[in-house]
Amino acid sequence: MRPAPPGIEMIRRPEGRRFRFVLFDFDGTLSLLREGWQGVMIPMMVEVLEPIATRLDRDALARLITEDVEETTGLPTIHQMMRLAERVSEVGGTPPDPKAYKGEYLRRLLAHIKGRRDAVASGQVEPDQMLLAGARAFLEALAKRDLVLCLASGTDEPYVLEEARLLEIDRYFGPHVYGARDDDEASSKSAVIGRMLAENRIPGDELLVLGDGFVEIADCKEAGGYAVAVASDEVAGGGCINEWKRDRLLRAGADMVIADFMCRDGLVRLLFGA
Ligand SMILES: [Mg+2]
Q1: What are the C-alpha distances in Å from 52 to residues 46, 47, 90?
Q2: Neighbours of ion ligand 1 (CB under 5 A)
Q3: pLDDT of amino acid 134
Q4: Whole-number mean pLDDT of the chain?
Q5: What is the pLDDT of residues 204-219, one digit of tens each?
Q6: CA-to-CA distance for 244 and 242, rounded, in angstroms?
Q7: How far is the CA of 107 from the centre of ligand 1 (A)?
Q8: pLDDT of residue 185
């Protein structure tokens, strides 16, 4: 096999595919605004379970919860909270409506990311500093081609819209920005992929998905698409691969792995030809 350009780990080449529909995940794939959300969600869940799950020590509990969160990354937040409610029932507790958990999680997360959002909104920090390296140039290159670009996220839609605007990338996606809506199944990533393919009469092999979550990579493969895993190290940056993400995304069926979009020239050539 010919060597892939630097920064690209090739599992299966996209040879012969002509992509028309490109779906991006938002958090961790393009946006860094919500970096560290797991560090908010996991401790909160441990806090909920610890007083009830008396048979598990804190470490075992943290491992169990981390696994739950990993498996549900990419699903609407409410699904992650539903899993927590199941865990509470399993150990004999009586969980509240998962929406209550979600409310508390969002309160904590918004406090955690407020500084970043404010810094961009006030012009103190350039939008591109809160994007993965090379992301804007990659989006620009794609916008010049005859492609439908779509942004899909498990985060609530009003936040996705607001943060995409804040980062000045909303313009690349036009009306195709999808987030979770009132915890409605029809707004999940799989549903969005299915609907976009059906509405635009696009066969699965014309679908390209870029994401850092298990769910979107698995959904893409399920639909017959080509999946680029963005195994971004959101903290270190600088082209570093997050090995944990890489591992999971390869298991989800990823066809190619990148750390960020600094390899954009090679990536565009590989995906779309000269
Ligand atoms: Mg993501």
Answers
A1: 10, 10, 10
A2: 25, 27-28, 212-213
A3: 96
A4: 91
A5: 999 999 999 888 999 9
A6: 6
A7: 20
A8: 67
Q: Report the predicted TM-score, pTM, of the whole model to 2 decimal places.
A: 0.89
Q: How far is the CA of 154 from the centre of ligand 1 (A)?
A: 8
Tell me the domains of the chain and their CATH numbers: 8-32+131-272 (3.40.50.1000), 38-122 (no CATH)
Is the pLDDT assigned to residue 73 strictly greater than 90?
Answer: no
What's the CA-to-centroid distance between 202 and ligand 1, angstroms? 24
Q: How far is the CA of 118 from the centre of ligand 1 (A)?
A: 21
**Distance from Cα 265 to the centre of ligand 1, integer Å:** 23
Q: Read off the pLDDT of residues 115-168 as tens digits, 9 standing for 90 and up.
A: 999 999 999 999 999 999 999 999 999 999 999 999 998 888 899 999 999 999
Give 222 Cα–ligand 1 centroid separation in angstroms: 18
Residue 1 CA to ligand 1 centre (angstroms): 30
Instruction: Compute, in angstroms, the gap from residue 191 CA to the centroid of ligand 1.
Output: 17
